[in-house]
Design goal:
509 residues; alpha/beta; Leucine-rich repeat, LRR (right-handed beta-alpha superhelix); 17 helices; 21 strands; 31% helix; 17% strand; LRR_dom_sf; signal
């Protein structure tokens, strides 16, 4: 045996790679590894048991005379066959349980009798090395809590007050991450609020269920919170109450925030009360497409509150269909202008059922304001009219003033009469790798390909979100004069213009 395999860390690393599916059959590979050499047994078993998605393997270590399985309403139910245990019942359990680091429970139930037996064993820590648990309310979570637990995720379609155990702060003192996706009514909210109010070391919190204003206020007071996600949808959410309870300062260490909200106007009222939070990433999802005025109010609130720190701003909605009537939903220079104060932006995305009508001078101002920009995506905003009002020349200021820009997605009119004959005027940007050309008008491929190849020498692809420019699309029914086909031709011309440019550079030497 190679001497490297006598080093435990090396063997553990190999076992971890096999457990992550490096060869495609993690369980089979780890079993083979455990049977190869005695010194491989412990690392292989650690990797085999560390992530569990079912109770069955663990409870199968208990004698069949103690634990049985039945199915009720398509759910696996574990039940006890007797009401007392002896020390020998736990021998195999004690061998494997400490190896479990992550547990996920979905669609399985522990009946009260077996729960009582497991709880009786709880004083010796049922899973003492468990660090993360993804929990669907099948029984009180207390029996699985332990000193190593750092992450709890509540999932499922229903809950009871017992789901959110008040014992969590005591039995899991190292808890750093709390997630809750349980569907529940406001009447069940106090139990979750009570749990949250007793947690003081959280660094990450995701509450997609109903969350009370007092719970938000408590989280806002914690100096440890780095990442948060909240659901502010529903009639129960009162922004005035939330604002009145938020401490000053609020979320003093928050770096990343994601919010689901019915209307952007609600969030525009809350964000100014978070002044001082060092927020770097803000992702907002609205259940309804906002008006342009609401969008501007939100951008004013964001720019006023986070101008010095925000690096990523994404705003989208849950509407999938074209809204039809875009009246009052047109994003103009004036609507976007407040965002120009976000001088540290590296990513700006608006993905909503609205229309875009901005001018070339505004794009120039935008590029000068966002010099650190890496990704600009406005491709889901519908053009106003049959073709975008911006010409392909709008790419020039972005290339000139945003040296780190990698991805561009904005509607432009690339028809031949709007492509500058003089090219990009000596401007080039070697960072841009991709351009999204959704709804970009085009009629001739060569002038566009020449312009883009000169402006973005490192450009790798022009794409659409629906895959309409796929080079492998051999559908004979495609119209060769359609925009999709023409943009596909642009892609195929890139290597030609690259070769011409390279040849010119060689001749220049």
């Amino acid at each position: 045996m190679h001497r490297c395999l006598s080093i435990l860390d090396v063997v553990s690393m190999i076992a971890t790679c096999l457990g992550e599916g490096f060869r495609g059959q993690p369980k089979k590979d780890l079993l083979a590894m455990a049977m190869t050499c005695r010194s491989f047994v412990a690392p292989a078993l650690d990797a085999l048991w560390q992530n569990q998605s079912s109770l069955k393997p663990l409870l199968s270590t208990l004698p069949e005379s103690l634990v049985g399985i039945r199915f009720e309403s398509h759910k696996m139910v574990f039940y006890s066959r007797r009401y007392a245990t002896v020390p020998d019942d736990w021998t195999r359990f004690q061998l494997y349980a400490p190896r479990i680091k992550k547990f996920q429970f979905y669609g399985e139930v522990i009946d009260p009798g077996l729960f009582f037996i497991l709880k009786a064993y709880r004083p010796s820590n049922l899973l003492r090395n468990l660090s993360a648990i993804y929990w669907s309310p099948i029984c009180p979570i207390d029996i699985f809590l332990g000193p190593s637990l750092s992450t709890i995720c509540f999932t499922g379609t229903q809950s009871t007050p017992e789901t959110f155990s008040v014992s969590v702060p005591t039995l899991a003192p190292q808890l750093r991450s709390l997630e809750c996706y349980v569907m529940m009514s406001p009447n069940e909210g106090p139990a979750l609020t009570n749990l949250i109010s007793n947690l003081y070391r959280l660094e990450q919190v995701t509450i997609m269920s109903f969350v009370s204003a007092s719970a938000i206020a408590h989280l806002a007071s914690l100096s440890s919170i780095r990442e948060a996600s909240f659901n502010f949808s529903g009639e129960e959410v009162d922004p005035d109450v939330i604002c009145s309870l938020l401490p000053n300062p609020s979320f003093s260490a928050l770096r990343k925030l994601r919010v689901h909200v019915d209307e952007l106007s609600l969030l525009a009222r809350i964000l100014p009360h978070m002044h001082g939070a060092p927020l770097r990433s803000l992702h907002i999802t609205a259940t309804e497409t906002p008006t342009a005025a609401n969008m501007r109010d939100l951008l004013v609130a964001v720019a006023t509150t986070f101008s010095a720190t925000l690096q990523s701003l994404r705003i989208d909605d849950e509407e999938e269909d074209y809204p039809g009537n875009l009246e009052g939903r047109i994003i103009t220079d004036d609507i976007l202008s407040p965002a120009l104060g976000l001088s540290n932006l590296t990513e700006f995305i608006i993905n909503m059922g609205m229309s875009l009508d901005i001018s070339l001078p505004f794009v120039q101002e935008l590029a000068k304001s966002w010099t650190k920009l890496k990704r600009l995506d406005l491709s889901k905003l519908y053009p106003l009219g049959d073709a975008p009002n911006l010409s392909i020349e709008a790419f020039v200021p972005l290339a000139k003033f945003c040296p780190n820009l990698v991805d561009i997605a904005i509607h432009v009119d690339a028809r031949h009469d709007r492509v500058p004959h003089h090219g990009p005027g000596g401007v080039s940007n070697h960072s841009v790798k991709s351009i999204c050309a959704d709804s970009c008008a085009i009629d001739q491929a060569p002038p566009v390909a020449a312009f883009l190849a000169s402006l973005f020498p490192s450009l790798e692809t022009v794409f659409s979100h629906d895959g309409g420019f796929d080079d492998d699309d051999d559908d004979d029914d495609d119209d060769p004069n359609s925009p999709d086909a023409t943009w596909g031709e642009v892609r195929r011309l890139f290597p030609v213009f690259d070769a011409v440019r390279d040849q010119g550079e060689e001749e220049g030497r």
